[in-house]
Design goal:
alpha+beta, three-stranded antiparallel β-sheet
């Protein structure tokens, strides 16, 4: 499916944020939603989030709503059907409150919705609004990336994995829990692991890895010969992080972006951090690093703080560290230094690759149409596997998978192009 981008210049308010804080409970209860319904629920929540508990109703331009979920038709019957489904879908949550007491509840996903004069008006029940607004446990759902998904199961798996990206693993889920997250718990067909793996797990994993900013890998746990549990290993997708940051996402207008640039963070890396972690989280870590003393590499330390969620220590009476503790601290510092250096090298490599891709775009623009077609055919002829060729057909000279081969190809044509 072709990658799409939202023109953020035509949006205002919360919609320019691109990411929405989505409560973990909401992610778990929305497994039975179709792809369009899931996308709609995320965009509606993004639009309403700032006034979620203070306003009784929320509004959004219907055409803007259609555009943000990638539905570019003037036929709003499909939107009406999906809004009706959200109002008819029962949301159920089962979680601990602040005192550790179990809380169970149900509510419709939307208490009402209507379309009038090109405007969609909708509301949440007060109880569900409180759950959706709760900032203690949330995932940042990227409404740009969700447009790339073509299946509801793929998007559901992305939402349930993305909130664990900094941990690196979802932890083990019983298969019954996983079926519920994917919305297939009511189907006898998917009680068979063979069917579940072939029709749900493998296609959803493939779509997440192809269409999102993370890469996931399933692992299975067995009792005897029977698969009983599943978990997903998670890491960032370097190709998506490099090529899918929208230059019109409004990040440059944020105060936190200016602070990052003042600390020597590159434009692309600043926007990448804001996109991945959210404005508030990055601002927190900036304040944390600013309060630390004796930091030799602000950039390296800040990247580590973002990656590992550094928190200020609780005030306590200082105690003289033991020799063993000092030795462990020195070992940790050495390890952090090694990681920071490796990270800085990866950042430099990404920026160099982006620079070369920009040069390639300039070189291509100078060629006439006949030369461009000949260049593409010649380059494709040099690729030796179907995956590389398909990726080049989809992304042309912006194909991150073929970046090295692209640079070598143009280096031969223009020897001094990248100097």
């Amino acid at each position: 499916m072709p990658e799409t981008q939202i023109d953020m210049d035509h949006l205002s308010g919360a919609l320019r944020r691109e990411t929405v804080k989505k409560n973990v409970a909401a992610i778990h209860i929305s497994g039975k939603l179709t792809l369009l319904q899931r996308k709609l629920s995320n965009v509606l929540l993004l639009n309403a989030y700032d006034a979620l508990t203070s306003a009784q109703t929320h509004t959004i331009d219907a055409r803007t709503l259609a555009m943000m979920v990638g539905y570019n038709s003037n036929d709003f019957d499909t939107l009406r059907t999906s809004l009706r489904a959200l109002a008819e879908t029962v949301a159920e949550w089962d979680m601990l409150d602040e005192q550790g007491r179990q809380e169970w509840g149900v509510s419709s996903l939307l208490s009402f919705a209507k379309l009038k004069n090109g405007v969609c008006e909708y509301a949440y029940s007060p109880a569900l609004a409180q759950k959706l607004y709760d900032p203690k446990i949330y995932a940042l759902i990227n409404v740009q990336i969700q447009r790339n998904f073509s299946s509801g199961h793929g998007l559901a798996l992305y939402e349930n994995c993305y909130r664990f990206v900094r941990i690196g693993s979802t932890g083990w889920w019983a298969l019954d829990v996983f079926r519920k997250l994917m919305g297939v718990d009511g189907s006898d067909y998917y009680t068979s692991f063979k069917h579940l793996n072939a029709k749900i797990i493998k296609p959803a994993v493939a779509e997440v890895n192809k269409s999102s900013d993370i890469l996931i890998e399933p692992e299975f746990q067995k009792k005897g010969r029977t698969v009983t549990d599943i978990r997903f290993r998670i890491k960032g997708n370097p190709q998506k992080a490099m090529f899918e940051i929208d230059d019109s996402d409004g990040a440059r207008n944020m105060q936190v972006y200016t602070k990052l640039r003042d600390q020597g963070v590159s434009d692309r890396l600043a926007r990448q951090w804001i996109s991945e972690h959210g404005e508030d989280y990055v601002a927190q870590k900036l304040d944390y690093v600013r309060q630390k003393g004796g930091v030799k590499s602000t950039l390296g330390y800040l990247s580590a703080a973002l990656r590992d969620d550094y928190q200020p220590p609780e005030p306590e009476q200082p105690a003289k560290p033991s020799p063993e503790a000092l030795e462990e601290a020195q070992a940790r510092q050495a390890q952090v230094a090694v990681e920071d250096k490796a990270y800085a090298e990866r950042v430099a490599e990404r920026e160099e690759r982006a620079r070369k891709l920009s040069i390639v775009e300039e070189l291509v623009s100078r060629r006439n149409p006949t030369q461009r077609d000949a260049d593409k055919r010649l380059f494709l002829a040099g690729l030796d596997n179907d995956l590389d060729r398909e990726h080049f057909r989809a992304h042309a000279w912006r194909s991150g998978l073929n970046a090295t081969a692209i640079f070598e190809f143009w280096q031969e044509l223009e020897p001094d192009a990248f100097d």
